[in-house]
Amino acid sequence: MIGYVKGVLQQLSPAHTYVDINGLGYDVNITLHTYEQVKDRKDAVLLYTHLQVREDAWVLYGFASLEEKDAFQKLLSVSGVGAATARILLSSLTAVDLARILANGDSKSLEKVKGIGAKTAQRIILELKGKLELSVPDLEAGAGFAVPVIEQDALQALLGLGIPKANAESAIKKSMKAGDEGYSVEELIKAALKNL
């Protein structure tokens, strides 16, 4: 099994890319969230992968985070959910949002995703509730809403800088209380760094 690939992205699109590793190009399907995280990278990018072996093809799926890969693999374990449906779900929702929806049993939010009907949404919740273990702020408190994307992106950036998660979350909360709601991701990161 191929656990990850690291190389320069070629012909990147929101759903697909080639990963050039020393002249060998791996054909990788990606989610929209992975695309958003890697689209501006010019250097080598690491994508965690899932290899699906079918009778007629071997298909490689790539993810910018282990959490997204884990969510994809868990979705594949649900009866009636294939790779295309799992990829659409993870292009519409982050792994964190999916974990919240599962924890809250919110089938209506899943039904908003293209291709997910009421029965499939209920089956996903029934089969995966409690199985998608992510470290999600306020998940234990049963929050019924998602953390804004800007805050999620800022948190990921701070974690990427090696800042402990608790410190990063605290700094972001302080920055959001002190500042206005109109922060861009970059401005929020700078403000959070000052609040560490």
Verbal overview:
With 196 residues, this protein is an alpha+beta fold. The protein has 3 domains: 4-63, Nucleic acid-binding proteins (OB fold (Dihydrolipoamide Acetyltransferase, E2P), Beta Barrel); 66-128, DNA polymerase, domain 1, CATH 1.10.150; 149-194. The protein has helices at residues 32-38, 66-76, 83-92, 95-104, 107-111, 118-128, 149-160, 165-178, 185-194; strands at 4-10, 16-21, 24-30, 45-53, 58-63. It has a 5-stranded mixed β-barrel. A hairpin with a 4-residue loop joins strand 4 and strand 5 (58-63). Mean pLDDT is 85; it is low at 135-147.
Q: Helix/strand/pairing class, anyone?
A: alpha+beta
> How many strands, what sense, and barrel or not for the largest sheet?
5 strands, mixed, barrel
**Which stretches are poorly predicted, pLDDT < 50 over at least 5 residues?**
135-147
From the coordinates shown, what is the CATH architecture of the largest domain? Orthogonal Bundle
The number of domains is 3
Trace the largest sheet across and list its strands. Answer: 1-2-3-5-4
Give the percentage of residues in beta strands: 15-25%
Rounded to an integer in angstroms, the radius of gyration calculated over CA atoms is 18 Å
CATH superfamily of the largest domain: 5' to 3' exonuclease, C-terminal subdomain
The number of helical elements comes to: 9
**What is the terminal separation in angstroms?**
41 Å
What's the pLDDT, averaged over the residues? 85
CATH class descriptor name of the largest domain: Mainly Alpha
- Overall geometry: globular
Secondary-structure element series: EEEHEEHHHHHHHH
CATH topology of the largest domain: DNA polymerase, domain 1
The amount of helix comes to 40-55%
SS elements, strand count: 5
